[in-house]
Amino acid sequence: MLTVRGISRSFGDHRVLEDISFDVKPGRMTGFLGANGSGKTTTMRIVLGVLAAHGGTVSWQGTEIGPQHRPDFGYMPEERGLYPKMKVRDQIAWLGRLHGLDRATAEASTDALLADLELGDRAGDRLEELSLGNQQRVQIAAALVHEPDVLVLDEPFSGLDPIAVETVLDVLRKRAANGVPVLFSSHQLAIVERLCDDVVIISKGRIAAKGSRDHLRRSRAGERYEIVVEEDAGWVRDVPGVTLVELDGPRAVFESVPQQVLKAAVDRGEVRSFTPVVPTLDEIFKEVI
Ligand SMILES: Nc1ncnc2c1ncn2[C@@H]1O[C@H](COP(=O)(O)OP(=O)(O)OP(=O)(O)O)[C@@H](O)[C@H]1O
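A: This is the predicted complex of the input protein with adenosine-5'-triphosphate.
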């Protein structure tokens, strides 16, 4: 498990991280969310050890991380750092060798990854000849080529079309299914909602919410319900104690006194559906940041 405890960091007088703690568990995809400038990249750089924290610790498998752990990590930095003029396959295999793989293993791993990322036919092209989305996939290959034990990916889905997102998702899920903890930042909340098991949301350098995606959503479901009836649901606002949140013809979203609303609806005629409203990650995000 990757454990982040009490991390703080300032740049000059500007405190950008304060008491950041979370876990990235084996086999789980952890989405790291926050508005622009909230401190995601700074946190990930500290996790990787490329930036020092001013307080707190980062541990991997119970040991505080140090340079000896570098080969265990697969890192996709925010500032993408590959060589535009180098051929895709040569570049990825070379990175594999830099991480200690022998030539045959590096090449085999490169070929398998390029195939999984649907880049096999671009293997002999120079990076600069690829579209931005395909260059992004090459960056992902670069982070994965040495079969790292833990993945830290800064915005791996930015710039990908929906089909490419699926391709990359499959590749990352495969790693997670093999027990690799995956931490990734993203602004694409719909993707995070589908993909991640756990979520960490930071706001202005502090943890705003964290936990399993499902628990986070359920725990914030609160007292909100949706009812759909046969005809206009405007009467819901007249039920004593109710707070009407939204009304759209036969559909009403409201808070409190669910039993009374349901009983009134049954008395009036057919109820099409009656469900608690579980907030989306998008709604939780907007509420906590
Ligand atoms: N090297 C640096 N020197 C000074 N300030 C920095 C430095 N790196 C980051 N910051 C500041 O730290 C804060 C957090 O930045 P960071 O890049 O971690 O945010 P982020 O959540 O990754 O944002 P984004 O979503 O826009 O990528 C910002 O206010 C940024 O200006």
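Residues 11, 16, 34, 36-42 surround adenosine-5'-triphosphate (CB under 6 Å). The first helix runs from residue 40 to 48.
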